[in-house]
Design brief:
This protein is mainly α. The protein is 52% helix and 0% strand.
Length: 63
Amino acid sequence: MLWSVGFGGRMTVVKLLLSFFILHSFCEASNQPPRFQNYFFHSYLLIYENTPVGESFSVCDCI
């Protein structure tokens, strides 16, 4: 890194900014809630997405 000898102050600022952005992006990524894959609803919508509205495939008899 011979080209950075004369730019010692600038390189320090660049390194600080780069480390700040890396740390900030890591904290943003780790602060997200976990995303769970719901396989029941995924398969339900895949199978029954063409069912007409008002037509049901199961009838509940309530007393």
